[in-house]
Batch of 4 targets.
Target 1
Amino acid sequence: MGSWQKKLSSFASNPASKQHLLNASFETVHPDGAGTHGPVADLAALKVEWHQFVEHVARKTQSLMATHLQSCELVACSPGGVLDLACCRKFSYEELQQERAVLQQEISEFYALPLQLRVFYDAEKDACTREKTVFTLFQELSQTNEVIRFLVTEFGGELVY
């Protein structure tokens, strides 16, 4: 099992194979059949290498930025090269906004594309991923678990933490 992981990681870290994957994921835009705006990145191809990018940032002694990037997700890439990065934690969003210029440069260098980064806070995902308190968990348990609900209604019990 370790042998295939070693082969796969060496393939992913090989610059020639990486460039081949990037070239395969680009398309040239021709508005009205004239003029070339240059390569445009495919969102799926960028997502494939997202974890490698986060590891790349961590290796460059920017482990704090890499930690914030782990809670983020690439959500869109427009034909103009604008890359949307959604943060599901408000603190990570605020920190990445402060380091936006450095992050912009790192993304452009790693993907070898002239990408413009747009970072935004996704409150909906934050609400879904936020850890629940013990009290919230107990309240949900008393409403959904039949055994707990029976004990509470029949014996007047109460969940206490």
Note: Residues 2-13 form the longest helix (12 residues).
Target 2
Amino acid sequence: MIFVGSLIIGGISAGIMTLIPDEASKLCYLGYYAHCSFTPYSTLILFTMAIVGTILLIKLIKNLRRKYNKVVEINQY
């Protein structure tokens, strides 16, 4: 759960930080001085990481609900 949370929070926050204009020695691929000179690609990679984390979180929640429902059904009998 911690790993999935760090994927989501880390991907979104770092992805936004790469877009912020900043003093740099080199232009980014979008044509301005950004916090990261590899800006559009690094942003896409980080946002993809956050999307993968979200998908994993949804699957984890579904799996935990399925296990919980099985335990409840067993305890009812």
Note: The radius of gyration is 19 Å.
Target 3
Amino acid sequence: MEKNNKQNKSVTIANIVSIVGLVLLLVFTYIGNSYMSGGEIGVDLFFSIIITAFAAFLLWLMIKAKGAENRVKMWKKVEYGTLGLYVLLAIPVSLFGGINHFFAVNGNKEQIKTYAQNDLQKISRMFETYEDFERTALNATIAGLENAIALNQVRDESLNEFMEENKISPTQEGVESFTKIQNSNLLGDGYKEQKDFYLKKISEIEESVNSWSMMTVPLKAKEIEEVAQKAGEELTKRSENAKLPNIGSDMFGRHTLTGENQSREYTVEGGIQGLEFRKALRQAEGFSPMAVVLVLLIHVLILFNYIMAYRTDKTDIGGGLLAPDGGYILG
């Protein structure tokens, strides 16, 4: 009874050890895949679960084959064939399915951090570009309106319609009122709140990257692109909604609207495709001996249950030597 209790206890410990190995395989494969994909959580989970489930299935099959009580020869072939498949396929797949990439990224993390800083600076500069352009555009429109309302100046129909639609009286007070409205829309409290929101996001991402939280870094890489995209779209919309026409003179000396409304599309320098941090995570290269050591350790833990598993002491009938009395010597 004591022997059976010890055996049951050892099996329970072996189960726990193998579960720890499978959990480590799942976690490191997930993180490695997240670096390779740049933070695509669904894809990363799918591949890490598939690789871990494959290793768990082979482990289960080896244990089942090792303890089979009938057709022992066949099950031995299954056992050793599965073990060979595990060594030849499961171990390399886990190594190159994310774990080696995990070490490749972390081995170059200081260089990769600089890409994140560059990308975040590009987003910040986009707000500076917006403010410079919109201030210049607003000043140009205001200067044109002030010239148009000066004494004895003639305005054509298009300019008069624009002024009527925007309730701009042909006086200095009317121009100043229009200036305040446009300045508020473009650079007022609404814009400042928007800018502060994105600057806070930038600061949070920078802090996370600098601290190098392994689980969140790939998500921050994806977030940088999302923040850049969304901020650019919102700034573009704000610019397009402004009413800042160019005002000049026609061939008759009348003040008129010239060209299209002053607005522009905003994006980070080089476009979203020019952002480097997420790309650097995906394209990190290198082969790490530490990755091999970790993979081997993980799989030793996983296989510990197989190593400690019960092996039948039975043999197939007909598997022994022929005895003098016509029977078989088993063994």
Note: The chain has a mean pLDDT of 88.
Target 4
Amino acid sequence: MVKAIKKRKSSLELGIIKKLKEEEKIIEWIIAEYVVGVNSKWHSYDFPSSQLAKLVLKILNKPNTKFSITHRLVKDILKKWEKNGICKFIIATKYAHCRGKTKKIYRFTDEGLKKIKELIIEMIINSIRKDDSLLLRLSEKETMKTREKILDDFLFDFHEMIESLVSKSEIDDND
């Protein structure tokens, strides 16, 4: 009887896998925050994988040469979420400028958005426990605001700006 020899992974391979897992957690966080934010502001439920990959590159300040790797990670996260019932695969469309490359469009359900919000809260709690400074900095953005809260904040900032302009013009008039 021949036993199958299990190939051991080198320390380099294990390091790469660990790094990808760390990046996957951050990318998952970015996607979750973005999807919830866009949905709460614009009632959008459909998101192309390429759009999410471009967002990740922009937030992490990575060059466009990393797009294919990032897009692969984004698609893997979306596949995982699809298995967990967070989103549904809708269609794969081809890019206009190249033949072989496709972007996948996923639709997030109301129940899936609820699960994402739970995931975000869990990630915040875990990042506080582990003192994960990157996730804590990313969580400083408030994307889970309601429309009313967003409008209230905007109006408050607007009124403060008007008051500062009025007070500045009064000071200039007195001089």
Note: The mean pLDDT is 80.
